[in-house]
Amino acid sequence: MTPPAEPESKPGILDRLRARYRWFDHVMRAQERYQDSKGDFYAAGITYFTIFSLFPVLMVAFAIGGFFLASQPGLLADIEDKIKSTVSGDFAQQLVTLMESAIESRTSVGIIGLATAAWAGLGWMANLREALTQMWGQLRHEPPGFLRTKLSDLAAMTGFFLASAVTIALTALGSSDLMMHVLEWLGLQNVPGVDLTLRMTSLLVSVLITWLLFTWVIARLPRESVSFRSAMRAGLIAAVGFEIFKQVASIYLKSVVTGPAGATFGPVLGLMVFAYITARLILFATAWAATATENLGVAPVEPPAPAQITPRVQIREGPGVPGLVAAFAVGVLGALGLSRLRKH
User: Fold this and answer.
1) Which SS3 state, helix, strand or coil, does residue 222 take?
2) Strand, helix or coil at 4?
C-alpha cells in the first residue's frame, strides 16, 4: 500500500504578491540585497564620517571669516559693538577677546582645518564608495595600492563637491523666492494662481536637479563605474524620496526646536537623522538598480574553487584478516567433503 502523498505547502502572501506584481518582486530583491550587503552598517558609517567632517569644515569657515574680518576693520568694530550691546557683563568682553584671538590665529586654524577636513573627507568618501560597491555586488579585484586608492578617492571627492556646488547653485536659481522677485520685476506677482505655480515649479526643479546628482553618485562613485542607464531610474526614486523626506523633516524640526532642549540638541540630532536617512535612501536606490532584470542577467559569477584530487594508495602485506578467515572456511568445507567420501 502506497503511503498518501504529502500535501503541497501553499506559498505565503509575500510569495504570491511577488509572483503577481513585478514591481513588488523588484522591491523585495532590492531589500534582500540591501540587507545582505549590510546597508544599515554602511549608512551608520557614512553618518559618522559626515558629522565628524563638519568640525574641520567649520574651522576652515572660521578661518575664511577671520581673513575677511581682518581686511574689514570697520565691520569688525561694528560686530564688537553689537556683541557688547547685546551681551551684558564680562561675558561680552570674553566673547570679543575670543573672536580677536580666533582672527589672529586664522592661518594656523585654516591649515589645521584643511588638513583635518581632507583626512576626514577621504574617510567619508572611501566609506561611501565601498558601500555603493557592495550594493552593486561588484567583484573585488586586487587593490590598486594605498596611494592610488587615496588619489582615486580624492578625485571622486572633488567631483562630488563640484557636483554638489552646481546642484546648490541651480537649486538657488530655481527657488520660489528668486522666481517671485523676477515676477515682481516683470509686474506679474498679482496674477491668480502664481503662488501655487511657483511652488510646483520650484519643487519640480529641485527634484530634477537632485535626480541628476543622485544618478551621478550611483553610477560613478562605485569602485567600478556602471552605466547611467541603470542608475537613472534609481536616481529618480532617490530624488523623489529625498524631496518627500525634506518636506516632512522641515515640519518635524519646526515642532522640535521650539523647546529649550530642542534648541540645544535639535540641530545636531536633526543633522544626524538627515545624514542617516539620506545615506539609507541612496544605498537602497543603488540596491534597486543593481537588482534590476537587465543587471541580474549580466551579474558576474565567481568561478568555483579548484578541485583537489588526492589519490589514496594502500599496501597490504600477506593475506590479512579477511584472507585468513576465507582460507579457514575453505579448509573446513574441504575437510567435511573428504570425511564424507571416506564413509562412502
Assistant:
1) coil
2) coil
